Amino acid sequence: MIRSLFLLTFLLSLTLSAQITSETIASSVLGKSRTIDLYVPEMKEGAVDPLPLIVVFEGHELFDLVVTNVKFFSKIGYMPKAIVVGIRQEEPYQMSRDFEIDKNSGQLTSRSLDFKQFVRSDVVKRLATQYPLSNLKVIIGKNKGANFLNYFLLDGSNLFSSYIAITPDLPAQIIDPLLEKASSTSKQASYYLFNSENLPERQQNKITFLGNELKNIMNDKLNITYDLFSFPDEFSSPAYSIPIALETVFRIYQPISPKEYREQMLSDTVIAHSYMVDKYEKISRQLGFQKTYILNDIMAVFAAAQKKSDAESIFVLGELCMDQYPETMMGHYFNGIGYEITENYKKALKSYERAYSSEPIDFITKEMILNKIESLK
Question: Quick check: 160 and 86 in contact, CB under 8 A?
Answer without folding.
Answer: no
